[in-house]
Amino acid sequence: MKKISIVILNWNAAQDTIQCLRQFDSWQAVHVDIWVVDNASADGSADQIEQACPGVKLIRNPQNEGFSGGTNRGIQSALAQGDAPILLLNNDASVDETALATLYDTLQSKPTIGIVGPLLYRTDDQQLIVAGSKNPVWHLHNQILSIPKDGKPYRVDYISGSVALIRAELLRSVGLLDEDYFFYTEIADLCRRARNKGFDTIIDPAARAYHNLERSSDLRSTLYIYYIIRNRFVYIRKAYGALGFPLTAFWMIYSALLAFKLQMEGKRATASAVWMGLSDGLRGRSGGQNERILRITQQIKTGVAAL
After folding, report:
1. How far is the CA of 14 from the CAs of 5, 19, 48, 183, in angstroms?
2. Helices (H), 115-222
3. pTM surpassing 0.85?
4. Residue 207 main-chain phi, psi, to 5 deg
5. What is the residue-level pLDDT of the chain in tens, covering all 307 positions?
């Protein structure tokens, strides 16, 4: 029987997490051990999950450590238990048993395959969201939306962390997610380090998974865009030497123009998130900034002057 460890992160979204966990109830061909990491939720999520799903291993983080830090707590626990591949799964994503078995077989087919992901579709309209991604520093629109006609697994720069199956040996070799990113770009960084160690990062188009983007839509215009902008600069500092200066200059100009455009369009909160991402990126600020970003952008949305 195929054995997989699953790590799911929860932050103030107990019902999403419980619904995500229900998909595994009837599985028979794949044995799963599930770790749910609650990232210091303030709404009683951890208690709700523990009561509704007593079979999962619940980790209660005393503080919000972001996607990277929270996921790392689950990965560490899974690695302590054995060498089963580890599936990172968003609590608003779903993957069926057949698709996960396909990913497992692909991962095991060659020892050089370190991370494998599926094609990712929107839950509501079945539209393809991403078929792998390109380097976020070299590409503005870095999500791949075309699938090779031969239907065979193919290499990509990195895989969405929404659904990603990772070889335990890779994590022991290259390390866990870099917590400087807090949220977004940490999987791109992990895939880069994996390739430097000789591991391939693969999309298997024979496997499909689904992501409900509507559940996180409120945060996409502010908090998400802040981390997308800021973490490009974090990635440049970590991955590039002499090329760091021109890359930083390019993304500085791009981000400033984007913020100005958004401001002219009346999207003041989103423009502010971009400006803060740019400023923090250039200053070298890393880690979590959720409370600050949400406070300032909410003040702008409600017409209160931000301090």
Report:
1. 20, 9, 6, 19
2. 168-174, 186-196, 217-220
3. yes
4. -110, 135
5. 899 999 999 999 999 999 999 999 999 999 999 999 999 999 999 999 999 999 999 999 999 999 999 999 999 999 999 999 999 999 999 999 999 999 999 999 999 999 999 999 998 888 999 999 999 999 989 999 999 999 999 999 999 999 999 999 999 999 999 999 999 999 999 999 999 999 999 999 999 999 998 765 567 778 999 999 999 999 999 999 888 999 999 999 999 999 999 999 999 999 999 999 999 999 999 999 999 998 998 888 887 544 3
Residue 210, judged by CB atoms within 10 A of its CB (0-12, 13-18, 19+), counts as buried
* Residue 57 DSSP label: E
Q: Which fold has domain 2-216?
A: Spore Coat Polysaccharide Biosynthesis Protein SpsA; Chain A (3.90.550)
What does the CA dihedral 81, 161, 217, 144 come to, rounded to 10 degrees? -160
Ranges of each domain in the chain: 2-216, 221-301
> How many whole angstroms separate alpha carbon 117 and alpha carbon 97?
14
Ordered alpha helix ranges (H), the chain: 14-22, 45-52, 66-81, 97-109, 168-174, 186-196, 217-220, 223-239, 244-264, 268-283, 290-301
CA distance 268 to 297: 8
Single-letter residue type at 168:
A
- Rounded to whole angstroms, the Cα distance separating 115 from 163 reads 10
Q: What are phi and psi of 43, to 5 degrees?
A: -115, 15
Q: What DSSP character marks residue 133?
A: B
Q: By three-state DSSP, how is residue 124 classified?
A: coil
Which pair of structure tokens corresponds to residue 140? 């503005």
Residue with tokens 């391939």: 200
Place of tokens 């209660």: 60
Q: How far apart are CA 47 and CA 61, in angstroms?
A: 13
Task: Write the CB contacts of 109 (distance below 8 Å, at least 6 apart in sequence).
Answer: none
